[in-house]
Amino acid sequence: MALGSLESPSRGVPVTAAEFVVVANRLPVDRIITPDGEEIWRTSPGGLVAALEPMMRSVDGAWVGWAGQPDLDVPPFEADGIRLLPVRLSAQEVEEYYEGFSNDTIWPLYHDVIAPPQYHREWWEAYVTVNLRFAEAAAAAVAKGGTVWVHDYQLQLVPEMVRNLRPDITVGYFHHIPFPAHGLYAQLPWRDQVLRGLLGADVIGFQRAQDATNFLAAAKRRLGHETKATTIALPDGRTPLVKAFPISIDTTPYRELAQRPDIKARALEIREGLGNPKRILLGVDRLDYTKGIRHRIKAYGELLDQGRISVEDAAFIQVASPSRERVDAYMHLRDEVELAIGRINGDHDTLGHTAIRYLHQGFPREEMVAMYLAADVMLVTALRDGMNLVAKEYIATRADNRGVLVLSEFTGAADELRQAVRVNPHDIEGVKDAIMTAIEMPRHEQSKRMRSLRKRVLENDVSAWSRSFLTALEDAGARNRSGAS
Ligand code: G6P
User: Keywords for this entry (predicted)?
Assistant: First the structure.
């Protein structure tokens, strides 16, 4: 990816007002210091960057975000045609706003309390302080009558804050993760403040229709606002739109890389390196407790124990990229996953074959595409996931219409990708059967399903997503400017 290779951003670009400002917790690049002390900027993790980067290149825009390290003062700079406006976070703010409130309170709460959310008042204070800093940076960067597009759960207060600072602009918000049912959401001690924060936007976009419904219900119950099908009537006369806009990927690089002879050769080399098994299964996730990695491993281990598969016939590659490593729940998960894999491999490996090839690393996109090409079966068994873009990446690479996607019904992607083999990841017997169905699926059926999955993904790519969000935002902004008191 172009940004990944960026080594020395031109510094000190003068900040002129931008028509369009994206606000996200992370900049699209993270600052990394190599072992020999060199500064490089690498594409930051997660689906958000991949989703927005292509759109940002095509507009006169700026991106407000954090450079991924504490106590780092970086002046505004430009990277690959995108103007970047870094927000500084102190070490304590990283702990309380990012690791704490964002990733140990909101993240588990919004993912249906798979891990227990921690509620701490100091974390909330830090969240308010940091959200205000992002809002001020966006308000200072946006041109008169311009647009600010706020992203994700780390910044839920920014829409209201930025609107208060700049009533002349249009504000959009897109929520990349699930929004929970009221029975869970109601746990949040600051539930009303968060709703008010989000309602500062003209469009509040979600991944699934269910997320939008949950939000509308919460706004009605908690704040007493009147809701129509997809709008909320606010006392100030504004009527924000609340709707699902399922996100997707930029399919072009995946399709192109999948055709490259060197990457096809690399896929064969991967198969070779695993001892030429009949079937390769693949899981690709951030190492996160929402992803159902343990459930998948348990099911796979039982299939081996029962002799339904053997290490000679099948190899399972699990890529688990390091994530949020200072948060307790993530440390525990890593221990559990590694213990489980170690046991399974100890029981089943031979000198020539490994049951589960576990890679606690991130890989460049080229290598990921080679793995997607090598994989006969892709396993996505998330317990809860806003969308899951890995499922769409896999599909985008399968130009020959071969390969099977096993997909959890608790992902946003399951609403769209109906031809996948669907699983309830909590049902271990069901996961085992789904894995066997995928392994044994005849070619013609693979091809029938993959053809329809590809049609869906290729037609609804990320530019279709951003276009539909931004068109809705333009309409809602105009409506609210004329309606607001
Ligand atoms: C998810 C979130 C993103 C986040 C990404 C990576 O995709 O929706 O907002 O950036 O995970 O997590 P991290 O905490 O490393 O930014």
Answer: Glycosyltransferase, Transferase
The reply to whether 146 and 214 lie within a common domain is yes
Q: Is the CB of 47 inside a 6 Å radius of any atom of ligand 1?
A: yes
Determine which of 31-45, 146-160, 391-405 has the lowest per-residue pLDDT on average: 31-45
Which residues span the domain enclosing 128? 3-247+464-484
Domain count, the chain: 2
Of 154, 291, 323, 327, best ligand 1 pocket probe by most atoms within 8 Å of the beta carbon: 323
Residue nearest ligand 1's atom 5 by CA: 46
Rg of the chain on CA atoms, in Å = 23
Residues 456-470: tens digit of each pLDDT: 999 999 989 999 999
Q: Residue 76 pLDDT more than 90?
A: yes
| 324 ligand 1 Cβ < 6 A | yes
Residue 430 sits in the same domain as residue 478: no
Query: How many degrees, rounded to 5, is the angle at CA 246 between CA 243 and CA 252?
Result: 145
Q: How many C-beta atoms surround the C-beta of residue 17 within 10 A?
A: 13
Is residue 292 located within the same domain as residue 179?
A: no
- Put simply, whether the predicted model's pTM sits higher than 0.85 gets the answer yes
Distance 223 CA to ligand 1 centre (A): 29
Same domain, 216 and 126: yes
Ligand 1 contact, 177 CB (< 6 A):
yes
Average pLDDT of the chain to the nearest whole number: 94
| Ligand 1 midpoint to CA 445 (Å) | 35
Same domain, 296 and 214: no
Output the domain CATH number for residue 394: 3.40.50.2000
CA dihedral 291, 294, 299, 305 (to 10 degrees): 160
Ligand 1: residue whose CA is nearest its atom 1: 46
Residues 242, 350 within the same domain? no
What atom of ligand 1 comes closest to residue 98's alpha carbon? 14
Residues 170 and 204 in one domain: yes
Neighbouring-strand partners of residue 423: 408
